[in-house]
Each structure stands twice: as C-alpha cells, then as structure tokens.
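Entry type: protein chain
Record version: 2
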Amino acid sequence: MRRAIRLAARGLGSTSPNPVVGCVILDASGQPAGAGFHQRAGGPHAEVHALRDAGERARGGTAYVTLEPCNHTGRTGPCAQALIDAGIARVVHAVSDPNPQATGGADTLRAAGVEVEQGLLADEAEAGNIAWLTSVRLGRPYVLWKYAATLDGRIAAQDGTSRWISSPASRADVHRLRAEADAVIVGSGTARADDPHLAVRGIEGAVQPLRVVVDTNAGAVKPGARVLDDAADTLVAVAEDVAYEDTAYLPEVVRLQRTATGLDILELLGVLHRRGVRSVLLEGGPTLAGAFVAAGAVDKVVGYLAPVLLGAGPAALADAAITTLTEALRLDVTETVRIGSDLRITAVPVTPAPKEH
C-alpha cells in the first residue's frame, strides 16, 4: 500500500477533477505482478493500468488501492467491475470514496465474492489525496497558502523591494507546489508590484495551472501583463459592477459580489470548483491572504522563512478579521525542512473552520 501511495502522488496536478490514485497488484502467490496510477482525467484509472501491467497474473491475486474502486461509468468504466472481470480475489483499499456518484465499489466487489478490506495506511493515503477529498466534502477547492518572509515576518522591505528574500532553492520548490495545483491565485497588489508570470518552470511534463488574479476594480492586470501570455490559461476575477469595456482585453473574466474587503472569496472558490479546480495555491500578498483566512478558506500554510531581518515592511498576513488572541487561527506544524538557506515550515489549522459553498 505504501508503494501505491507513492505512485498516486505522481498524478498530483494532472488528474483533476478526479482524485490521485495508486494501485499495486500481487499475484496469487503474493509476488508483485503489476502497478499503476491515475495519470490524467479522462484516462484509465489506476486499477486499469495495474491490471494491464499484471495481465493473467492478476487472476486470484490481491489489489492494493489507495481509494475505494469506483462503481460508476464516467469517461471510463467502473474499476470495481474491471477488478472482478480480471479475477482479483482480494481488494485492500485505504480510504473509502466519499463521492456519492462513485461510491459503492466495495459492496459491488463483495457481492461478486471478492474479499474486501479497508483502512490500511488510511491516514497516509488521505494525506496524499487531501485536495480531492476536501473538495468533495466541502464543495470548494483545497487551498494551500504559500508565502516567503524574513525571520521577523516581513515579505518586503519598507520601500517595497522583495526580490529576493527567499533562496533560489525555495523559489524552485514553489514551482513544485504550482505543478501540483490546479490553480494559482494572486491579488491586485501582487499583480501591480511584481507583474508575476505564475506558470510552472523547470518541471518537465508539468500541467500548467489556471492563473487567477483577483482584481476587484479591474485596474491591476494591464495589457501586456506577463500573466496574459499563452503559457497557461488566465482568469481575472472582478467586481460585478465593473464596466464591461474595462475588461474587454482580458481572456476570461468572472464577475463576483463586492464585499467590504474586496470580492466574495467563497463565491470565487465555488466558481473554480465548478470548472474542475480541486486544489489552489494561494500566492497572493497579505491582503488577499487575510481575506482567505477570514473566510475560513485556508487548509494548509507553507512558509519559507529566510535568515534575514528587515525590521520594517509589510507583514505576511494583513487583516484576517481576528481581533483578539482567543480568535487566533492556531496551527499544527506538520513538517520543518531546510530548503537552501531557508526553513520551510508546513502547518495546518488545528481546528479548521470549513465553510461549504
């Protein structure tokens, strides 16, 4: 199962709106016979790749799958039936499928006489598929907020300069995060200050994420902006009262309700979810990050802390509607790693406040 979990991770960034899934098949004598993972939406599922790899050796064998085999026909057939047809005698899956359209695979397998077990390495498998699982459970994409800051929490100097606080190794690591996400989001402040490109560079075979700019008043993304090139698709979110002629040059625009602080974040996430986005990398500045935190829409935080002190300049997080210490968003640190000269800290909310859209 651990090998299946590692295989599943190879599909991160290329399977949405489907989950990442890995499958390993042992023959009747317990020897490795086949393996596979879900590579892209619309393509064969992990079980089908593994069955093809195993061939006749699958008959009487055991399939280890990170997610309960699907039970419905979409762009591909039901994997539960494919396992039955191949003569698999036993299926072990880590996580049950919460998708009401696809669940029931375990019952179908049992009805056909296949031995079924669930829960093996469930926590590890869930962690590897957390973006898709979150999207199914909450009806919105999983949001990872990434930022780079000095040791005293500044993301830029007092004069606005910020290139480069983090090390080259950290910046390369961010491209890995982009490659694993379905969409990358920044706000108007970042668009104005940095003219970011937001596409993945340096990772062979990466599927480019959708580039999203939250530009409430349609004044930050100018003609010729790097985010408007053809390296990846771009969506610009503006307020619903912005004049249409002010956005005519943009490739795709979504109009959202205006709020006291900008745009309705949960409405934006609902729009992205409906177009198949299951994971978001939030790269925006402190104002946009604060809006996401206030909306209860940050599921993981990855901070790159550089051994640098500035003493002044903007902090990583602006107003997040937290006014007293008892309201603070408490985090559980899940990993600390040296990346070049920096320290990468990964943390998740201790008591997440999931808001369904």
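Comment: The mean pLDDT is 92.
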